[in-house]
Amino acid sequence: MAVLIVATWAALLTYLLAYYEPDWHTPWPYLLALVQTHLYTGLFITAHDAMHGVVSSNRRLNNTLGTVAALLFAYNWFPRLLPRHHAHHRHVATPDDPDFHDGKHPSFVLWLLRFARNYITVWQVLLMAATFNVLKLFFPAANVIAFWMLPSVLATVQLFYFGTYLPHRGEHAPDNVHKSRSQLPHHVWAFVSCYFFGYHYEHHDQPYLPWWRLWRAKQA
């Protein structure tokens, strides 16, 4: 599944940059940008599953695939993400949770800014800028922005909204040990919105499940 997501992302991006001539007066380029956003989200979900060691039973292969998927998503660095994500699981919705708000500013925008500050580095921004300037030498700048740069930003917001903000906002019942909630069991929407990551309580309860098995846990 990991190889399929990476290969599909790469194949579609190659087509969109090298061969596609968008007509911005039609809905198609915007729909394709959303498809590419979904595939970007898939890259991060693949890296996320690798953090839990469920992409491959071979640890070296698991970490290699996780590293590749993370790098393709705006130059995220897997070894840096790994301890932070496990800190999130150990200290969910506490001051030691790097994904959580600061306790004073739980609004969507301020929480998103804190989330971005915790995960996006200056090096990533510089590498993205450098890559953009290289890509636009070979491909139309509008295509690079619409199908390479913008989808990575939209996917970041998508991951935060469905994978952090909605599951962990507000108060949780005292017996909710994972301080998480899940979206309603609509599997098609759950996949489209964030690769079943909206079934977040199930993920925290069974982190050894890959993303494509979370819907079964929700049904159980």
UniProtKB/TrEMBL annotation:
Protein name in the entry: Fatty acid desaturase
Pfam families per UniProt: FA_desaturase
Organism: Solirubrum puertoriconensis
Keyword Membrane in annotation: yes
Keywords: Membrane, Transmembrane, Transmembrane helix
A single BP term in Gene Ontology: lipid metabolic process
Record's keyword annotation contains Transcription: no
Fatty acid desaturase domain location: 116-218
Transmembrane intervals: 28-48, 60-78, 120-139, 146-164
